[in-house]
Amino acid sequence: MSEGGKKFIADVMLGRLARWLRLFGYDTVYSSAAQDNEILVEALISRRVLLTRDVELAKTAGAVAYLVRANDLWGQLREVVAHFGLETRVKLAICPVCNGKIVPVRKQEIEGKVPRYTYLTHERFWRCENCGKIYWRGSHISLAEKDIKKFLGGADENFSDSSLGQSDN
């Protein structure tokens, strides 16, 4: 499921980073309630790179961990993208909310589950198999693209055909 086979697990301090890595198509486990020992065990069992801001956790984890030094989101993204050679094109094959797989759904299946205007003005929709969140190509895509270009220096064509909007339903 993950782009290039890279899989991550992020500690409690890196939730926003985890969300963006998912947007880029990277399988990234994150739980705001997970304890350090749980995160480390999961990293080892599932063969994930542990991303952490915790120096002691990084020392304990050793080779399976990467200590993220930047304090802000965009600095963290630049650092992780550069270190692991990641692509910064939004794919949305992975749900940014829960890390589940996003699959296409028929428009009729989501009627009443997205805003009426969205339903009337869009033809293609996708849903997360895990949490049920519905996605479509929304105007916020261009805002995300501007942020990527501004903060990460991304190319004009950062978004794949599956770039989508979303609904809380």
Key features of this structure:
single chain; 169 residues; alpha/beta; 2 domains; 4-stranded parallel beta sheet; 4-stranded antiparallel beta sheet; 8 strands
**Low-confidence runs (pLDDT<50, min 5 residues)?**
155-164
Output the CATH topology of the largest domain: Rossmann fold
Radius of gyration (Å): 17 Å
Structural class: alpha/beta
Tally the structural domains: 2
Instruction: Please describe the biggest sheet, giving its number of strands, its sense, and whether it closes into a barrel.
Output: 4 strands, parallel
CATH level 1 name of the largest domain: Alpha Beta
DSSP strand tally: 8
How much of the sequence lies in strands comes to 15-25%
Strand order of the largest sheet: 2-1-3-4
End-to-end distance? 23 Å
Helix content: 25-40%
What's the order of the H and E elements?
EHEHEHEHEHEEHE
The CATH architecture of the largest domain: 3-Layer(aba) Sandwich
What count of helical segments does DSSP give?
6
What does this structure look like?
It contains six helices and eight strands; from the N terminus they run βαβαβαβαβαββαβ. By secondary structure, the protein is an alpha/beta fold. It folds into two domains: 82 residues, Rossmann fold, CATH 3.40.50; 66 residues, no CATH class. The strands form two sheets. The chain has a four-stranded parallel sheet, sandwiched between helices. Helix 1 links the parallel strand 1 and strand 2. The two termini are 23 Å apart. About 6% of the residues have low confidence.
